[in-house]
């Protein structure tokens, strides 16, 4: 609920502002240690990314409350935002977007790690699990770029707004597609912030959607085997529906003004 989210925001903001904050029965403050603030910014950013790959990957709607808090904190404490992007890019290179190539001399295990796979005792995580985590992180990113903390002063621009999303989409469409990963991430991204991009970029956005349908989807098809069609057909249907309706639906779970009255 809205009031609970404000409590969470205030607690994080107070901590980063150097005020003492009660946690597990004791007062902590970043001023207690010379590197206290650095450490908290780092750990906080890491935790936000973990929310993306965990909570958001299972409950898509949770992207919005997490993103709106992070967006507000980022505005007041830019270091948290920088740390967040660093963690996100390391865990999910597709958020850059970037598909790392295997360098000579790199072991397969090392290479899979750079692609974002979790590797434990030389065992690589299942593809489904990997895709789910990547999806959660992209959805969180797509929610952040369009949300502002409603109680901020709104004087400045969004610290990492829709122009970054527009750039992400353009760069993504300049990359050679990968089976599974590319169609899933494009769909996640468009479902979450397609509506906001449509409002902001109008005709340019529709040209991009048309390009995806006419040119990019066939390129994804060319690298996709018959067993990997799931993500691709969902993307295809989504793009087709949107072009027919000339409308991108609002994402499920977006925070409405009434949310903040709860």
TrEMBL record:
Alphabetized UniProt keyword annotations: Coiled coil, Cytoplasm, mRNA transport, Nuclear pore complex, Nucleus, Protein transport, Translocation, Transport
Predominant place of localization: cytoplasm
An example Gene Ontology biological process: protein transport
Protein's cellular compartments: Cytoplasm; Nucleus, Nuclear pore complex
Pfam families linked: GLE1
GO molecular function: inositol hexakisphosphate binding; phospholipid binding; translation initiation factor binding
Gene Ontology cellular-component annotations: cytoplasm; nuclear pore cytoplasmic filaments
Role according to the record: Required for the export of mRNAs containing poly(A) tails from the nucleus into the cytoplasm. May be involved in the terminal step of the mRNA transport through the nuclear pore complex (NPC).
Family per similarity comment: Belongs to the GLE1 family.
Record-given protein name: mRNA export factor GLE1
Organism: Oxylabes madagascariensis
